[in-house]
Every structure is written in C-alpha cells, then in structure tokens.
C-alpha cells in the first residue's frame, strides 16, 4: 500500500515520511547496509543477507501491491535517512496482523524519525483493519522499548539468549505486540 507524504520539522531538521517508490531501491540498499554496520540492534551484521537494488525494487513493488504491507522511508533533502517496513501475509489465520522493523542512520538519531515513522505506521494499520502489530526488539535497545510502550505495545514474551553480539555475550529478544480492537 501507499500513504500520503507528510513533512516533519524536529530540532531544525526537516524531513518527509512517505511510501517507498521504485527509484528509492539503490539508496535503500546502501542505507540498510550502512545501518547494519552502525548498530547491533538488527539480526544482520554489515554485509550479511545483502539486498541489492533489484531486490529492493521487487520488495517495493510487492509492498505497494499488497493491502497489508507498507514500506515507509524518511527522507531529508532527497536522501533516505531511515525506513520502516511492515509486512503481513495472506494466510487466513494470520492475515489480521503485521510485523515491522525500523532502521535509522545513526547520524539521524534524536530527531523523532523513528517515532514519526511508527506513528504513521500505526495510523495506517488502524485505518486499514489491521488488528495486531508485532515486533522483535533487542533487550539492550531501551529507547526503542520505551517508544513502543508509549505507543501501546506490550511485552508478549522473551526469547532468551537469542542473539550473540560482538562482546561475546548472548542477549534476549523482546517480543512486543499492539492490539487494535
């Protein structure tokens, strides 16, 4: 699906949140690779499960055509600085829910981009009959956990010792969900 673009001005940074389009594919490939190298909050290390421009083009096409998928980008001066991708499925028993993930370039943390991407996504989900939104977040990502809780998400479970990080320790993944109706 697609949503109308929306502008934000936070801490003297003006950015737009809009639906991803095919021409974003090359930038999205580069941004995802960079984000994977800037944080350990994702499953991937830099370069793992690399998705190239054609892979993103296909993903954007599928997400645009699917009624329960949404791919948002945050853009500042024609540069993609973050994204949120939410995806559901066509299985009857689980078609009422979507799962999502957010990625923001580290240089753009602190400008409300994650919060505004999340708010736009929740609005879309609530407006389109999505009954449940779910996510996985690393236990050490306290800012994200607080953000999700402030927007109605609750902890549904913990996947213990789920990820091995660069310090050689295992960390848990928190499973969170938000119900609508």
From TrEMBL:
<feature type="domain" description="N-acetyltransferase">
    <location>
        <begin position="15"/>
        <end position="181"/>
    </location>
</feature>
<dbReference type="InterPro" id="IPR000182">
    <property type="entry name" value="GNAT_dom"/>
</dbReference>
<dbReference type="Pfam" id="PF00583">
    <property type="entry name" value="Acetyltransf_1"/>
</dbReference>
<protein>
    <submittedName>
        <fullName>GNAT family N-acetyltransferase</fullName>
    </submittedName>
</protein>
<dbReference type="InterPro" id="IPR016181">
    <property type="entry name" value="Acyl_CoA_acyltransferase"/>
</dbReference>
